[in-house]
Amino acid sequence: MKPKKPYHKENLRQDLIDAGREYVRINGHQGLSIRMLAQQVGVSPGAPYHHFPDRRAFLLALAIDQFEGLLQEASAKAEDGLSAVDVVKSRAMNFVRFALDNPHMLELMYESDLTRPEVAPQLQHYQELSHQSGADSIRRCLPDINEKEAGLRNIGLWTSIYGLVSMINKGIIRPFDDGRYSIEEICDWVVDRAVGSALAA
């Protein structure tokens, strides 16, 4: 007789988030189920519901976990002795690397049922935090501009960057001329110009 799987497990919430992150990274979020994750982390099918009332709540928590990670990395860069300009460039390239390494997670965060037809309020909060953090970084480079101008410049910058990674992930932008232009070179060029435009006097 097989022993019953435990209902509770220390750090179960984080174990589920970790397992869900890896599943989404490889497979996307569409096929993810709470029951499958419970089996993967070795608990009873009902145990995850102690932390997440339903699948949508779990996906929302997973997306928020990724937003928090990106914001923490951005904050760390600002405290890492980089110049204000280098912080903006580094943040932009960090997002590009994340987006290209994690296209399925990017979809969950920005182009899933969590954002359509309306953005989930909790997710909107983190999107706004990300925007404000970016605008603040621009103002540190250009202290004479007002908050609205910084916000518009940040929107312009991230429109370029998000458009870039979306087109790469969809295969619209790819190495051209038999690899003469690599994806890395394309990203470096576009990010450098987008940041330069955002920080132009």
UniProtKB/TrEMBL annotation:
Pfam families: TetR_C_33 (PF13305), TetR_N (PF00440)
Domain of life of the source: Bacteria
Residue ranges of the TM segments: none
MF terms in GO: DNA-binding transcription factor activity; transcription cis-regulatory region binding
DNA-binding region(s) from the entry: 33-52
All copies of domain HTH tetR-type, residue ranges: 10-70
InterPro entries linked: Homeodomain-like_sf, HTH-type_TetR-like_transc_reg, HTH_TetR, MT1864/Rv1816-like_C, Tet_transcr_reg_TetR-rel_C_sf
Keywords, comma-separated and alphabetical: DNA-binding, Transcription, Transcription regulation
Segments forming a coiled coil: none
UniProt name for this protein: TetR/AcrR family transcriptional regulator
Organismal lineage: Bacteria, Pseudomonadati, Pseudomonadota, Alphaproteobacteria, Sphingomonadales
